[in-house]
Amino acid sequence: MTTYLIDGYNLMHAVGLLGQGTPPGGLDRARLRLLDWLADTTAGRRCTLRVIFDAHAAREPSQESTHRGVRIRFAFRQTADELIEILLATVSHPKRVTVVSNDHQVRDAARRRGSAALTCSEFVDWCITQPVKPDASQTGGSPQLTQPEKPEPTTNPDETATWLAAFSQPRPNRRKR
Predict the structure, then answer these.
(1) Which residues contact 103 (CB under 8 A, 6 or more apart)?
(2) Separation of CA 65 from chain center
(3) What pTM did the predictor assign?
């Protein structure tokens, strides 16, 4: 089973849940929306999600908590990037860990440790694709995504004739003078 170490605020910015001028209380709501979305989109997949949020200004450390199966940790007196690198250094099976961040340094640290690394958009793409093939998650490797089937065209003969007439006409000869 793959564990995803996710830079929470990095992902929130990437998906548009957090921007400049977030109103009071907006940060808590945005975090909750992200955690709900993660729980919904990864339901049924064999993975563990650990979302790390920056908390360098926190007054005291907090314990790791869980929201709908998503594990949450606040990086006390450090950045999420720093805590992710510390967590990477302590895992016993780095090949079972994937780091999710747009930060090059964190992704490079993951690769050096033997872990996979995804940008936030690559992770979002993985989240919104069709579910993983059942045997892919048991291999311990990266998930193998199923490709959606190509829909069959549903045009009738009259529509086909109209399209052919519209696009089969010769183009006028336009010469520059």
Answers:
(1) 7, 10, 81
(2) 21
(3) 0.72
Q: Any residues with CB less than 8 A from the CB of 21 and at least 6 apart, and which?
A: none
| CATH number, domain with residue 80 | 3.40.50
**Dihedral, CA of residue 118, residue 133, residue 50 and residue 129, to nearest 10:** 60
Tell me if residue 4 falls in helix, strand or coil: strand
Confidence of residue 158 (pLDDT cuts 50, 70, 90): confident
Rounded CA separation 48/114 (Å):
18
Using an 8 Å Cβ cutoff, are 137 and 122 in contact?
Answer: no
Contact in structure between 143 and 137 (CB atoms under 8 Å)? yes
Can you read off the two tokens belonging to residue 48?
């563990």
pLDDT in tens, 126-152: 998 866 555 444 444 444 444 455 556
Residue 22: pLDDT band with limits 50, 70, 90: confident
Query: How far apart (Å, rounded) are the C-alpha atoms in residues 62 and 76?
Result: 8
> Does residue 41 sit within a domain?
yes
Q: Which domain holds residue 119?
A: 2-138
